[in-house]
Amino acid sequence: MTEPFTLARLGDAGSEIPVVRVGDRALDARSLTADFDGAFLAADGIARVAAALDTLPELDGAGGLRVGAPIAAPGKVVCIGLNYRDHAEETGAALPAEPVIFMKDPSTVVGPFDDVLIPRNSVKTDWEVELGVVIGTTARYLASPDEALAHVAGYAVSHDVSEREFQLERGGQWDKGKSCETFNPLGPVLVPAADVADPQALGLRLWVNGTPRQAGSTANMLFSVAHVIWYLSQFMVLRPGDLINTGTPAGVALGIEGNPYLRAGDVVDLEIDGLGRASQKLVQA
Ligand code: ZN
């Protein structure tokens, strides 16, 4: 019986150190892997961490280091649109009969406390707290949703930052309003799937400058995490390290009276039950 642990990456962007958090201790995992990436997850990395927990040294000075995204740049970031009834309603969209899929540039993934850049010429930068699902083993043409959760490495708080004018008013696909620089803060930690008893029973909350804006539950997803993974696997191969953003509940600026879109200097705080809390300041690009 090992203690519960989470995975984090600490240090400057691009040279993060893989760290295992156990309680308030930060353990240096570099004896196990150079980084927490798809190859690590595919090689049964989380089980290897569990087995090595007693042998990993403390990381000196961990508290002073920047917190990076808990996984290295994913191979792809796949997002589910309109996956909560109340969010679909606030946007005026019809409820989808099948999951709505769009892609996000994987290089948008940044640390959970990094600044988020408001794109140049943006007037409608918006927030979206989401349950992020990290794939652990290749999922290809799954026979049913019952097989899906076995392919999950873990879960993390994900912020699917969105520019609504670019997304909805400038033509083409949604990707344009979703792939701006820094538009996917992730973390603070990756919680192993085994330690999330039910991914459909997690509260998600988001504040802007301390004002509560989103307060939902993954219980209200139109398509469950298992359904989404099974569904995606019919159209693309999900590979270790890939990130799925599973949709956002109601309460985004697009759906609020007066549309209070984000401005430079604003601070967004977000959290999900058991997955930790993140905070980002908005800065003009
Ligand atoms: Zn989203």
Automatic annotation (TrEMBL):
Top-rank taxon: Bacteria
Record carries keyword Glycoprotein: no
Keyword Transcription regulation: no
Molecular function GO labels: isomerase activity; metal ion binding
Gene Ontology biological process: carboxylic acid metabolic process
Alphabetical keyword list: Metal-binding
Domain Fumarylacetoacetase-like C-terminal positions: 76-282
Family under the similarity heading: Belongs to the FAH family.
Protein name per UniProt: 2-keto-4-pentenoate hydratase/2-oxohepta-3-ene-1,7-dioic acid hydratase in catechol pathway
